[in-house]
Every structure is written in structure tokens, then in C-alpha cells.
Automatic annotation (TrEMBL), chains A, B:
It comes from the Bacteria. Gene3D superfamilies: 3.30.420.40, Winged helix-like DNA-binding domain superfamily/Winged helix DNA-binding domain. Keywords: Kinase, Transferase. The keyword Transferase applies. One of its GO terms (molecular function) is kinase activity. This is Sugar kinase of the NBD/HSP70 family, may contain an N-terminal HTH domain.
Length: 397, 397
């Protein structure tokens, strides 16, 4: 129970930034005295610091503001992409304090080699974090594939050619608990945590496009994972059942119209050897009013709108957020998406027909990485006992 | 807290049928002594009865079995259909003790007239229930339309021609709290409560076809309602975006291929003046190997499979259950549905590709009515104080 209350104090400060003891007490529904005891323990453990009127005077004066520490435990986030590996360290306040980007050559996604590379990056990240007096209290890894619910096993990642790869034995131990999840889910969580306003009150569909197209379905602030952990496969929703063949084996999936390869091909841009890098070029052509590029994006938007019409009819979310690389194309992509939704969804309110709002993500392509790091931070805040006694915390001295 | 514990005793018995005091204690995690006090109060209030070894001897002997009373409070369920009104009374044990079916003439769905008719039926039902010493402790009404979340207002019911109809002022008061919900949601809850085995562990998509095609999405045992209460509109998921026009204004919605009117037309059966009554005839023709009927059902199954592929890719349910009138066509409808799902969904498990199981509902067309009545019963079990002091209960004497 005490652990639970310590955790609630930490989460209150993570959500609000800075609070007085009285404000913490009000938020979590404990007495001022109980909160003072908890706060003292967290201050001694180095997880909080104090600023404002009380800072240099008597600790605990009413006006003093508490904030989470910017030293000590932090969350490590990692993203495995088709063409890149990225890792970052986020402190308890949510600031990214170190980040390493690594570009991978074409081909060669053998799991052992990729994870050895990632392990090296994480060790470099730990060394860099240590110079800021930060140590990893948890690691979360975003992958472009399906992850079996509650495990670290990638069941299937078609764009990496992975099947049934358990990441746990291939990653460094000693960086705290490991979480592995689909990049779309972490992208949606970033949207929820970093941009709460944009996410409405927390029921939305978050489209996360890279090479493929995934989505996360957030219902009342939680990701809907599905029976096996495979929910959100928007890229394989049928758009035209007799349409072009998809690598998944079906025909006319959304990815065959709006996946990166299809989109670049329709725009007359060769997919090339560097996947992921050419959406910006496409956006430039659209901005320059290139007719072929505009038509390609319009058609992709239309296909996306048809697939999303199915999702909105089924789920009735407050909002649809387009993230990932498609977000760069928002000015040209969103109008046809909205047109299809207005035409094909049953939503009515107060007798007037209003379509579900569609917006581009403001976070951009860093979403999955930030969501992963934030998830590691939040996991750490759930278990204060671990933070108070762990290496480098200087706790309980 | 005591009310909450009384309610837990009642729900334990509703779930299990008959339990000894010790078994109740084990299930709800209270001491034997605490449970005995609660049980005594419920026995005095007439909400439980006792049978088995202890029945005629000393009350409370270890071996005696407790069951919910089959007299006293009951739940009233009602269903408003395009061509019928049905009402029933379900006792606390889940048995339907009275039911009245009323066939409506063609046309004429003016809300005031329909609800006056329904009020008359509910009054007759109350009179019949009284002859079994049952009184209504709650009323739940299933409607073929969208109901605004948390209200008794039908926002839109296209097949009735209703928009923004608040049922509360038009129904009898004095039958306990009123709940109004979409028939598909009540149908799914019936599947969950009456046929738990069939529903897997409680995450499934339940298709509920009548004139239109609705669905309920059940996640971990709860209906996903959506931001406005409009989730589950499977009938308007696009199957072929340029397909036939749908009364909703879009093109190629599932209903234009597998809705009752489309299905009967494709089978060469005129939709006729009595909607809802001809699926049985179609099933007979299929059983007699009528080629036109078989092709019509196969095409409808294919369209249903395409729309469900989208739903399964997005939601990853344990199972899909086909209820409502389409359940009658299961032998001919399910093979094409399964074929499309096998082709178009990404689900893999243990390296083998396995499609999400699809089954026909065993409850049949009574699902929404039974789900509504059961919902009224469960609502009553949530508030034992009301049951212990209400008319006819003979409580606290």
C-alpha cells in the first residue's frame, strides 16, 4: 500500500510537472500529513527535488514546489525499423537527454545481427546517460510487427522477415524490465501522453505508417490489444476485395494503395534502396503542385478513408489521428480521407450529420520511440521500491 | 459496503445456480461468518431460498444449497422490431416466465403509436407476471438503431424512420429503472451470459442481423460502445467502395450485399410485405439445393467475410459469432465467410496461420430479447436494497 501511494505521488508529478504538497494531497486524495511522509521518503531517495520559496529554507514549506528528479533512474526507448535503429534515454520528467540514431544498410535483417547492433547502441546510450547521472530503470522496444500479448516475442514482422523471435535473450540485461510492443501502439501512447489535447478524451484511432500501415485503437486511454495482441492491422483491411495482390497473400489490402511502396510507385518515384526516406520528397512535389504526385496522394487518401470508414463504423472513436510518415502528407492526404469518412460513416449527433474529426499527428515520426521511452518511464514510476534501492540512485543512504 | 456485498452474493448465485454458504464465501472472498449474515438477510427478504439437506431442518446447515428466489423481483425485457414487438419477464434465476409476441402491420412506425402499443403489452405482462408472484424490478428495451450513450434516446433507427426519440416519457413508469440499447449489443450480451462457452473468454464480434446488419464488439466481457454509443455498425463497413447505393447514402456497404432485402432479391424472393419472415424460406431453398438461393447466400457470405476481415484485422477477437436471422443460414453462409477470413486476416499463432473461428449463434433470433431481460435482472441484482424493500417483495416483515 505504501508502495502504491509512493507511485501515485510520482505519477501525479509526472502528469502535472510541478505541484506543492497540498496540491499532491488534493490530487491523490490523501491527507497532507500522509503526503509529507511519502514526499520525504522520495526526496531522501533522490526521486524528487524541491524548488520555489521553500527551496533553500526549511524543507516542506507550503509554497515550495515539488518536481521529479532529472538525475537517477530514467527510461530507455528503442525503435527497430526496416532501415534504422534508434535509442533514447528519457528522464522522469519526460525530457529526452540522450539519443543515438543508426542507419542500417539495405537487406540483412537477421535477428541476431540486428539485436547485437541494438545491444551495442544501448550500451553506448547507457554510457552517455551516465555522464548525466542517469541510469536505465526499464527498456521498451518498438518493432514493426505483431508482438504476442504480454511477451517479448515478435510473432511476425513481414518487413523484417521475422517470425517468432524472442527478443529477451538477445538484449542486454541490467537495463531494467523489458517491454516489447508494436510501433503503432507506442506511437498512439505517445500521442496520448505527449499531446493529450489532440487525442480528445482518449478514444481514438491512431494510424502509424512507415513502410507498412499499422494502427492503434485507444479506448478510454488504453490500447486495445486484441485476443493475441494483434489488434490494429489497418494495413490489411480490404479496400477493394479484388484489388492488387498484397505480400500478405490477400488482395486489395489498404497497403496495396497507401503503403509506402505503392504510394511512391504511383507518384513515379522509384521505391529505391532507402525505404522510409522518400515521403519528404513526395511532400515537396505535392507542395510544388506536381500533378502526378498529387493524384497519387489523393488516391492513397481515398483508400485510407475507405479503410478508416470501416474502422469508424465499427469503433465510433472521438477522433482519428494520422501519424508516422503519412503525417508529412497531411495537407494533401487529409481532404480525401475526410471526404470518404463523411460519405461512409453513420455517425449523427443531435440530428445533424457530423463526421469523426481527422487530424495529422503533431509528434511526427519520433512517436513510437518517444512512446516506448515514456512507457519505460511510466513502468519505473509504478515500482518506486526498485528506484529507491537501485544502482546509482544513491538512495537510503 | 454491505449493499455491495449483498450484491456479490446475489451475482455469485446468478452465475452458478446453486451454492452452499461455504462456496459463496470462497467465491467472493469473505469469511463464512460474514456470508452467513448476508445470506440470512437475503433469505428474510425473500431473494434467496434454500434447498438440500438443510432445507427442512436447521437453516444454514453446511450441506444446504442456496438458490435465487423464483418469486419476487424479476427483469422485464422488450424488443422493438420493424414488424414485431415482444416482451418477456425473466426471474432472478434467468428463466423466462412470461412472454407476449405482437405482430405489427406493415408501415406505421410513428413513435407515439408504437410505444403506446408497447406500454399496453408491458401492462399485460405485469399482470401475467403477478400471477406468478413476480414484479418488475427493471425494464430493458432493445431497438434496431443507434442509442446515445447512457441515455434512453434513439438517435437514429433508419428501418423505423426514427430520429431523436426519447423513450423514457413514452413508457410506463413503475417498472423499475429503464435501459435502452441497440439490439446488437443485447444480442451479444445474451451470447456472453447464456452461452459463455461459445463466446470463448469474452472477446468476440457478434453479428446481429435482422432487416439491417449490426454487430457488437465485446472486449474482455464488456460491450465496446464507442464515443457516442454508435460502435458496431458493421452493416455500413464498405465492401466494394463503388458498389450499389445504400439507403445510408454511401455505396457498397455490407448491407447492400448481405442485408435481408438484398439477399432475398438475389435469391429471387420478393422482399414482400412482411420483412423478417422470409429467411426461413431461404434456408429451406438452400437445404433443397436451389442453385439461385445457394448462390445468393454464398455471395452474401463472401461480402460478410470481407467486412469481417476488416473487423478481425482491427480487433483481433477470439471469435466471431453470427447471430440474428443470418444464423439460420449458417450451413451455407459460414463456409464463404471462413474462406474470406482465412485469406484476408493476418492472424498467426506459433508460426502456423490460423483464422479466427466463426460460429453460428445457438441462441437464435431471441438473443436481443433475452439479453435485454437478463440485463434488467443483472441491474436489479446490483441494487439489493431496492429489492429488499420494494412492492410485493414481502421483505423486512
Amino acid at each position: 500500500m505504501r508502495q502504491h501511494n509512493l507511485s501515485r505521488v510520482l505519477h501525479a508529478l509526472a502528469d502535472e510537472g510541478a505541484l506543492s504538497r497540498a496540491e499532491v494531497a488534493g490530487r491523490i486524495g490523501l491527507t497532507r500529513a500522509a503526503v509529507s511522509t511519502l514526499v520525504d521518503e522520495l526526496l531522501r531517495g533522490g526521486l524528487l527535488s524541491e524548488r520555489g520559496p521553500g527551496r533553500s529554507g526549511s524543507v516542506g514549506r507550503p509554497g515550495s514546489q515539488l518536481v521529479l528528479a532529472d538525475q537517477g533512474p530514467c527510461g530507455f526507448g528503442a525503435e527497430i525499423g526496416v532501415d534504422h535503429l534508434t535509442v533514447c534515454a528519457m528522464d522522469l520528467r519526460g525530457a529526452v537527454r540522450a539519443r543515438i540514431d543508426h542507419r542500417m544498410g539495405p537487406g540483412g535483417h537477421e535477428p541476431g545481427a540486428v539485436l547485437a547492433e541494438l545491444t551495442g547502441l544501448l550500451e553506448r546510450l547507457a554510457a552517455e546517460a551516465a555522464t548525466h547521472r542517469l541510469w536505465p530503470a526499464g527498456l521498451a522496444v518498438a518493432v514493426p510487427g505483431l508482438v504476442a500479448r504480454g511477451t517479448a516475442t515478435v510473432t511476425r514482422a513481414p518487413n523484417l522477415g521475422w517470425r517468432e523471435v524472442d527478443l529477451a535473450p538477445l538484449l542486454p540485461s541490467g537495463q531494467g524490465p523489458l517491454t516489447v510492443d508494436n510501433e503503432a501502439n507506442f506511437g498512439a501512447l505517445a500521442e496520448l501522453w505527449e499531446e493529450r489535447g489532440a487525442a480528445g478524451n482518449g478514444s481514438f484511432v491512431h494510424v502509424s505508417a512507415r513502410i507498412g500501415i499499422g494502427a492503434a485503437i485507444v479506448v478510454d486511454g488504453a490500447v486495445l490489444r486484441g485476443a493475441h495482441g494483434f489488434a490494429g492491422e489497418l494495413g490489411h483491411v480490404p479496400v477493394r476485395p479484388g484489388g492488387p495482390p498484397c505480400p500478405c497473400g490477400a488482395r486489395g489490402c489498404l497497403e496495396t494503395y497507401a503503403g509506402e511502396a505503392a504510394l511512391l510507385r504511383a507518384a513515379g518515384l522509384a521505391p529505391g534502396t532507402e525505404p522510409g526516406g522518400r515521403t519528404g520528397e513526395l511532400a515537396e512535389r505535392c507542395a510544388a503542385r506536381d500533378a502526378v504526385a498529387l493524384r497519387a496522394v489523393r488516391q492513397a487518401g481515398s483508400a485510407l478513408g475507405i479503410a478508416l470508414s470501416g474502422a469508424v463504423n465499427l469503433l465510433d472513436p472521438h477522433q482519428v489521428v494520422i501519424g508516422g510518415s503519412l503525417a508529412e502528407l497531411s495537407p494533401w492526404l487529409l481532404p480525401p480521407v475526410r471526404r470518404e469518412l463523411a460519405r461512409r460513416t453513420m455517425l449523427t449527433a443531435g440530428g445533424r450529420t457530423t463526421a469523426t474529426p481527422v487530424t495529422g499527428s503533431l509528434i511526427g515520426p519520433a512517436g513510437p520511440l518517444l512512446g516506448a521511452a515514456r512507457s519505460a518511464v511510466r513502468g519505473a514510476l509504478d515500482t518506486p521500491a526498485r528506484l529507491l534501492t537501485a544502482p546509482g540512485g544513491g538512495a537510503m543512504l
